[in-house]
Write a structure and sequence with these properties.
This protein is α/β, with parallel strands linked by helices. It is built from eight helices and 14 strands.
């Protein structure tokens, strides 16, 4: 039996270097953010927002203040370094503000919003508890539910996205996608009281707008119906490609809703497995025709 000849390391390295040299995009000028540090920053934020997720969580007001202070003290330099790296990677020769200054402005602005982010997340927790008969207490939501974890990450990433931070918000939400199976672009706008039940396979696109107190189940896709191109034939970016859900909309498992001009009206329900590419009026149900159910006796010969 013949063996495969071994490729010398020098030849392998040379071929890889030549391939890299043919890349059509510019070579990086700075090191990217470190994923492990991004994830560590998210965990510090999560613990600062909800100390009850940490072992040895504080039991008094004095202990709580000291505990949260430790989280923020650790978070600030950790997140700042990743912000600097993000801005450095995205910097161009035309930039007149340094990555260091941009990162300093961004972290101050972000930390100034963190209490507001928590206020919205507490409404999300209550909506999940109220909307799921399987939930026995709020600790189950905070500690166990992948949909709530994905929302924590999204609300943090969305705040950074709105501040114009490059790269880092997407790294955060893709980490969450990997951890939970829930894919939410940091650009998506999601109102308070949002509940993702079960969660696996949920996809929420960049320009989705979701109102208050909406609920989606597993396998739901809020996506683009088509992609417009510019005069040069390239895909257009930064336009409304994804649907809007008004307040109090429920979307059941496996439903697909597509299109930037598709609006699901307030209080409407999208049944499971439905494919929707047009708007639904307020307080309506969108459902497929009932399937014919046939119950047949099995003849096994036993």
């Amino acid at each position: 039996m013949s063996s495969v000849p071994e490729v010398p390391d020098a030849v392998l390295v040379r071929s890889l270097v030549q391939s890299i040299g043919r890349d059509p995009w510019p070579a990086p000028t700075a090191d990217p953010p470190l994923l492990e540090e991004v994830v560590a920053s998210l965990e510090r934020i999560r613990i600062a927002l909800f100390p009850r997720v940490a072992s040895g969580h504080p039991n008094s007001a004095i202990e709580l203040e000291a505990f949260v202070h430790r989280q923020v003290t650790d978070l600030r330099p950790r997140l700042y370094r990743q912000l600097v790296a993000s801005y450095a990677c995205a910097a161009s020769p035309e930039d007149h503000v340094s990555p260091v200054q941009r990162a300093s402005d961004a972290i101050n602005a972000f930390l100034g919003q963190i209490a507001d982010i928590r206020a919205i997340l507490t409404v999300d927790v209550q909506a999940a508890y109220d909307g799921d008969p399987a939930a026995r207490n709020v600790d189950e939501i905070i500690l166990c539910y992948p949909g709530f974890y994905a929302l924590i990450v999204h609300r943090v990433a969305h705040a950074l996205h709105l501040l114009g931070v490059p790269l880092l918000p997407r790294m955060m939400t893709e980490w969450s996608h990997r951890a939970t199976g829930i894919d939410i672009h940091p650009g998506a706008s999601i109102g308070k009281g949002f509940f993702i039940d079960h969660g696996t396979g949920v996809v929420i696109g960049e320009t989705v707008v979701i109102g208050e107190f909406c609920k989606v189940y597993q396998g739901v896709t809020l996506g683009a119906k088509s992609f417009e191109k510019d005069e040069s034939g390239r895909l257009r970016k930064d336009y409304k490609r994804h649907p809007t859900l008004e307040d109090h909309v429920t979307v059941y498992a496996g439903a697909t809703i597509l299109g930037g001009d598709t609006v699901i009206g307030r209080g409407s329900v999208i049944a499971g497995g439905v494919f929707v590419t047009q708007s639904v009026p307020r307080n309506h149900l969108a459902a497929q025709p009932r399937a014919e159910l046939r119950v047949l006796e099995q003849r096994t010969g036993i």
